[in-house]
């Protein structure tokens, strides 16, 4: 009895010692690694909720749009795009010139600008950034490609730099206005190297990175000497926010509760039903923000029967009641999409709205004329014994599953069968597309320059999910990125949008709208020209610290 | 005893090798790799993508990649992330404490609650038994994300007593995530505990104890639970696998940093070295725990050493 007791006691004490050691070392390591700066919060500190957790946060290396939400305000860019006019305005470059052949861009840089680490900003700093972005060992996932046909730079003097291109590349200014080409302190880049710089980022922007604990949070603090912002940054902000902490709310269901419980002050990407619910509260303001780029859409596979037939594609679009989908899935918080670009994208063509209004009779008639009949009375139309059955690749994000279910039920009423194949992530989607076994696939991308269409609609494009090869389309898409004449570009993009819809290459569903909301501790939430990135410098603190 | 321990150590090594090999193969058999994924929206050409693959050694034959991975592992080098270029060891190390605390806390909650449910379901009166059985079925059937969302609405939004964001390792930050993960763990522990106790009820030594006139409480705690403590300890140790899966969801729900979130991102981004690193870590934790519980059990019961 006593032996048994002693044994049990020994076992228990051993395990509690192990447990205690584990806990102790963890607590100790926390105490040792927790920097002293986090101890005293500033007078006005708010929490901003991010919705994705990117694996990499270096704007020159990584491609996630999420990283721009905090970092847009850590960096300045050579030029900015005005969110209201969409025109390019001065940034770190006071002015610029483009040579008549479109091959040389000369930037005259602003004087008196300092990085957060005190280093001066000048042409050599721009050069160091271009070197880093284009170096193969940086393995840039986005920034290097944004530079298009960039060949080399020439430093003319301390405040003048030229970018020389191999061929004209109209989207260059748009690229240079993006956070991925934000100008970082050469000293910090040198000091930390490509792997660690993301934890210690240094720019010239209105906020500086104070602390970044991967997976946990990012803390930004206001840059008190900032006075070189673009014209749309407020200079008379009476109560700018001193500190902003960014945290990750990857599960959509957790976002509204976080806002309602006060765990965050600002958050984006609310599910539509939650957005309506929080907007009914007196203490919360809903800020829907339209995003330029592509709408939520389904690409038709034109290489697989029956969507290889233009008339079938047209009938499918006509059979679709998009308004009903917007009402039920998006609670009327998104506009209906009509073409390959959303209505807030530069060079959007409003005439596109005339294509394919919803009409069950017309859709049915088109299919009947093609020879489709319900011969076996199973409710599904057939042609030569084959049922009119479509395979849809449906990503689990972006409300595609909910939309696909509505499509399925709408089409069922009209004799079109839909088989939904869900894919959990981008890798799954690309693999499904690679197999070629699909009729429609939901996918989109964002950006303020319509040249993003080239990644999808050029016949040799990697993401030519439609397997389309149209000589006119190829030619116009190429020419549209080679001229910087706005009227000419508008002509090309009007033609491109019309051609894409005339050929019924996509089934557009809704223009993307980011449903942001904030509580009354802040005011003045507004976004840049790309829609995703908040102008943190314009936020005012309304609460009690 | 020493040969037994050696045998267990060899078994653990084999498990580790198997885990590393399976993780290596499973990821590389998938049709889209990290580079294609990263560059698909960049406008990069096929030749640019191929050049990047070559620079990372991803164009080498599978055999060569496998050998280089194994030799790296033997040197303790887990490689670097394909997405952010940081060493995998550092990426895991900076997230490990958060997940460890969550797992230990959840295991504690789950073990206490599970044993209590098991005792109630096996030995309680009719009402208590039915209640405990229903609770076990409920916790087994409720997914963590649902339970977690309910808990957030109740405790953070409704009552406002606990934070919906689990930041750091304070008690307040840990109650909800550990509670939610622990509750969903308690179902399977309760099930096994109840089954073991039901079996023990009719065992000869319990009947002897009852015939001696010992009080019921003493029979349960001193005799029945102790006789089956070995099985329970093993079961609780084997929950490590479930804990890692549960941590992925729990960490996302409570926006808590940790290995779970790291793994989820790495899988979505096809970041082979990071996935391999986390899989190896889980295999290591699993082997260590099961070896430890086996050795403990063998130390208490010499009959087990032969098997």
Short summary of the structure?
With 545 residues, chain A is of the alpha+beta class.
General description of the model:
The complex is a heterodimer of chains A (545) and B (307). Chain A is an alpha+beta fold and 545 residues long. Chain A folds into 2 domains: 2-20 and 43-288 and 516-541, D-Maltodextrin-Binding Protein, domain 2 (3-Layer(aba) Sandwich); 296-511, Dipeptide-binding Protein, domain 3, CATH 3.10.105.10. Chain A has 16 helices and 22 strands. Chain A has helices at residues 2-33, 68-71, 123-134, 143-146, 172-176, 186-196, 255-260, 272-279, 310-319, 322-329, 360-369, 400-412, 426-435, 454-457, 471-480, 486-502, and strands at residues 45-50, 79-81, 88-90, 93-98, 104-109, 150-157, 160-165, 207-213, 217-222, 243-248, 266-267, 284-290, 296-300, 382-383, 386-387, 389-395, 417-423, 440-442, 506-510, 513-519, 522-523, 540-541. In chain A, strand 14 (382-383) and strand 15 form a beta hairpin. Chain A is globular. The termini of chain A are far apart. Residues 1-39 of chain A have low confidence and may be disordered. Chain B has helices at 2-29, 34-39, 46-55, 62-74, 88-123, 126-141, 144-158, 171-201, 204-211, 216-227, 229-237, 240-253, 259-268, 272-300. In chain B, 77% of the residues lie in helices and 0% in strands. Chain B is an all-alpha fold and 307 residues long. Chain B has 2 domains: 2-74, no CATH class; 94-306, MetI-like (MetI-like fold). At the A-B interface, helix 1, helix 6, helix 7 and helix 13 of A face helix 2, helix 3, helix 5, helix 7 and helix 13 of B.
